[in-house]
Amino acid sequence: MVNRMLAAALALLLGLAGAASAQESRLDVVQKRDKLIVATFGTAPPLCYTNEKNELVGFDIDIAKLIAKGLFGDEKKIEFMVVTSDGRWPSVLSGRADFGIASTTVYPDRAARVAFTQPYMDSGVGVLVRKDSNVKSLADLNNAKFTIANLSNPQMADRAKRFVPNMKVLTFDTPSAMFLAVKSGQAHAMQMDTPVVDWYAAQNQELTVLPELFSVVQNNAIFMKPSDFTWWLYLDTVVQELRYGSRYEDYAAVFKKWFGKEPPAQRFYIGGRKAG
Amino acid sequence: MKLDFNFILRNLPTFLEGAVVTLELSALAILCSLVWGLVVVTARTAPSRALALAATGYIELVRNTPVLVQMLFIYFGSAVLGAPLSGFAAGLLAMTLQNGGYMAEIYRAGIEAVSQRQVEAGMALGMRRHEVMSIVVLPQAIRKVVPPFTNQAIVMIKDTSLVSSISVAEMTFHAKLLTDRTAAAYEVFLTLAALYLAINAIVSAALRLLERRVAIPT
Question: CATH no. for residue B156?
Fold first, then answer.
């Protein structure tokens, strides 16, 4: 008897939970809340980092603000959640954040667990080195006496094995810790998205970026909990409009602000920026 | 929420690889802080005021700063000074320094729990101070502190997870990499928690056995 009542109560609860999730898209939740909650990094300049005034800034941050502006007409209706490299996945899968934008490259094995929009930017993977290690190329760097700093994701480990198999490897969970390792001398080099290594080299006289890349073009995209078609479609469409459509001007302004150059053209057959 | 148990089984070898490092670091850190704690408590309870004061200052310093901060400080600081310590060494050093402070306080509680009259009796029998300490006081004190020591040992085993931030490939480190590759956060962290639980359950059971074996008969 008790068992049957318990089973009935459980079935009811599960049914309710199922019904609620079936009906309500994250898009409705966000609009009701009148605010976006976004997971991001706090230490990956110039994409998402904390500046001297302790404000979260960067290209990714501005893109997220443009999305808030599109949703609410107000870019301030947004709350950022700063997470670590591995912490970004549970932040969206648990439903704490509506989506994540955190210097995140699309890989097939990631796409099996989270949903990605189309890419909002390209980035390669570059190598930042200490000038005092007198390294001019990847061939110089590939030496057992040198150490490379990786971020705690296996793609970095795979690339290090492929391009510089002789180097010793250290692994950290934030880009700032990798940078600190290079700056302090624990490591001689680090690999990271090209905008990030370029930014560090520009800020630090004693560091430089190697001309060769580990990877020329990769896709950076927004990620979210899968199985919410409405919400995914909304965000994917917003990214499309920013990159190629009606919001390209906003996108171009933010791109120029952080990378100091024009973004890729809206269409390959236009070539450069035409409007305005 | 659907858990993928095959995923856990498939990746168990990776976890176990990390568990070996976790166990190594835990064992070394516990051993080193037991010894270092004895040194600190000797200074702390020494007749010399300056020595006792220095030991008290040391304990307050290491107890009141986070062990993660100490690890980062030692790890990156040693590199700046031109003698980079490995992540394992920096982690072991930080954990020994901090937990040596805790252990010293645990020992002290045990020492103070031994009646002052026994000390006086020992002195009256013509023992020297260090003899009273090593023959009369410490054998009783150490038996009394097995329960708080067990507690501290478990705290330390869990604290070893912090060295994953300074590139030591222990259990949490592998879990982070695995999460980042697959975004299977629930499976990974559930397995990780279960493994820590298993290790700590075994350690505390063993120490409870020890506690019973060395109990002072009443």
Answer: 1.10.3720.10
Alpha-helical segments (H) within chain B: 5-44, 49-63, 67-80, 87-113, 116-124, 129-131, 138-144, 146-159, 171-182, 185-214
- Which of B171, B176, B180 to mutate: most A Cβ within 10 Å? B180
Quick one: which of A211, A197, A216 has its CA closest to A45? Answer: A197
Q: How far is A171 from chain B (nearest CA, A)?
A: 5
A93 touches chain B (CB under 8 A): yes
Q: Is some CB atom of chain B closer than 8 A to the CB atom of A179? A: no
Question: Are the C-beta atoms of A65 and A75 separated by less than 8 Å?
Answer: yes
Question: pTM, whole model, 2 decimals?
Answer: 0.77
Q: Which of A107-121, B82-96, B171-185 has the weakest average pLDDT?
A: B171-185
Residue A195: how many other CB atoms lie within 10 Å: 24
Provide the residue type at B124 as one letter. Answer: A
- A25-120+221-259 maps to CATH 3.20.20.60: no
Tokens of A52: 């001297």
CATH classification (class only), A124-217: alpha beta
Is this complex scored with an ipTM above 0.90? no
pLDDT the model gives residue A249: 95
Q: What is the Cα–Cα distance from B173 to B15, expressed in whole angstroms?
A: 9
At B35-62, the pLDDT tens digits run: 999 999 999 988 899 999 999 999 999 9
Greater model confidence, B121 or A18: B121
Write down how long chain A is.
Answer: 276
